[in-house]
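Quick question, first post here. What does this chain look like in 3D?
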Amino acid sequence: MNQPEEIIRQAMGRRWADIPVQALPETDSTNTRLKEWAREGKIAAPYLLTADCQTAGRGRLGRRFVSPPGTGLYMSILVSPPENTDSGKITILAAVAVCRAIHELTGLQPKIKWVNDLFLRGNKVCGILAERIEQGVIVGIGVNLKTPPGGFPPEAGIAGALDVEINRFALAGTIARYFLDGMEKLDTDDAITYYRAHMPLIGQTIRYPQNGQEKSALV
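> Answer (accepted):
Ran it through. Tokens below.
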């Protein structure tokens, strides 16, 4: 049987096969692990980490990201983009990568809810968290693959799952391939075009928190 890291590398393709990959059965948070390892000088960008479950998964604004074992894909990628790269553009690239990877492997087509959530059948199936550190940017991605026994807990809100047969390591590698390909083409409009085409909110005004205040914008 192929090891998880081997499955991930195969899905990433030859172009990215030399990138360090590690698959853990459990961690507190894949973003937290990469952040600490990078600051301690143990790793450098690019680096990919996955975990079967997280005991302290995090979302935007410090929210808890429910990460039970055996039901999801939890991964983080450390990259080193050009210094002035907007973190929002990196989040867009990640959302597009997840959409494309899910569609490639399952035929399902999630929709993107600005700025970092993916929805399928009206439920949130993926969350993305990009964090900038001195050593680069860490992009955390959590995808709900299966509905947990008994359903999602109340704090998960309107969480849903893909609920199709899929190898989470193959999905991790495919997401990484699309994301890293996109990082090489930061100055193109390909990702933005795809992003807008898969947003159901185009043309609507959205409200979002920023620096303790509520802002609004036309999407």
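The radius of gyration is 16 Å.
Helices lie at 4-12, 30-39, 87-106, 168-183, 190-197.
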